Amino acid sequence: MKLGSINLNLLVALDALLEENSVTRAAHRLGVTQGAMSQSLGQLREIFGDRLLVRGKGGMQPTERAVAIAPELRRTLHAMERLLTDSPAFDPVTDRRTVRVASNDGGQIVLLPALRRALAERAPHVDIDAVQSADGRYSEMLQSGAIDFALDVRIDDASGIRHADLFPSELVIAARSGHPAIAPGAKELSLETLVEVPHVLVGVTTPGVKSPVDRALGAVGKARRVALRVEYFLVAALVCADSDLLWPTDRRVAEIASRHLGLRVYESPLPLEGPMIRLFWHRRFEDDPGHRWLRDRLIEAAHG
User: Fold this and answer.
1) Helices 23-30 and 34-48 meet at what angle, rounded to 10?
2) From residue 74, how far is each of 66, 104, 217, 233 by CA, in Å?
3) Which are the contacts of 172, defined by CB distance < 8 A and separation ≥ 6?
4) How far apart are alpha carbons 183 and 284 in whole angstroms?
5) Residue 90 falls within a domain, yes or no?
6) Looking at the domain assignment, is residue 294 inside a domain?
7) 112 and 125 belong to one structural domain
């Protein structure tokens, strides 16, 4: 007999009948009428090809077949209850997985050290696979499961994609220590320096889309010269440390580069409105305990 042809509620009725050895008490236990329970017993007898309960001294008694199936029936029903009610177990101390995070190298520079420290302390067997998409197709990667999280400003075609705001990108200007165009002890660049000294730019320029720096300069009738365009923040940092180019970049990235490469970080003479950096994930993982725990650690790393 195929499982699809059976009313599984009958198994609940059988469990009550075998526990109570009484149609009346089983009916009361499940909140149905005695007639409905008698009808269920009739269907069960037909399914199993056995009388299951027979009248004997002192009331109904289980048949040999009923005694044999009762323990397995109880285990099966308990398993079904766990399936329907329990959340998947997650213990960060014992969990073994690789979390896949997609981001440009600027996001990796900012978040991965703090995330790695948190995992080493609280989830020692969880590894990180950090990737960067050449074409920025993070939506497809999230939908296919190729990555667990993405860090970006926005994601096109974001059907089924959830996000959390991490931090606004606060733009500053980085330059090498002892730059000849910057006065010693200065905390803010002059507008003249920002315009006249060539820049290094991370990323490919999109036609018709101006960067925050170019928008701010354009608003005061000025323009800059971008002498070098590179794909990676790390390359920009190394070039900036070994040249006279200015590097407008996120404050967090600049401060990390300052610690490791000796760069100086200056405030801009113009207000530079950077974009909001967001964490993206697919909605099918919204309530997964492990995914949610890792999501919280990424947000903590961003806010730290």
Assistant:
1) 110
2) 12, 53, 74, 60
3) 248, 249, 250, 251, 254, 265, 266, 267, 268
4) 54
5) no
6) yes
7) yes
User: Beta strand 264-266 with 273-282: parallel, antiparallel or unpaired?
Assistant: unpaired
Same domain? 255 vs 112: no
Q: Which residues pair with 162 in a beta bridge?
A: 281
For residue 147 the two structure tokens come to 């990555």
pTM summary value: 0.70
| pLDDT grade for 147, boundaries at 50, 70 and 90 | very high
Phi, psi of 283 (to 5 degrees): -65, -20
Tokens found for residue 250 = 């996120």
Contact 237, 174 (CB under 8 A): yes
In percent, the amount of the chain with pLDDT more than 90 equals 64
Query: In the chain, which residue ranges form alpha helices assigned H by DSSP?
Result: 9-20, 23-30, 34-48, 64-85, 105-122, 138-144, 191-196, 212-219, 233-241, 251-261, 289-303
Count other Cβ atoms within 10 Å, centred on residue 211. 20
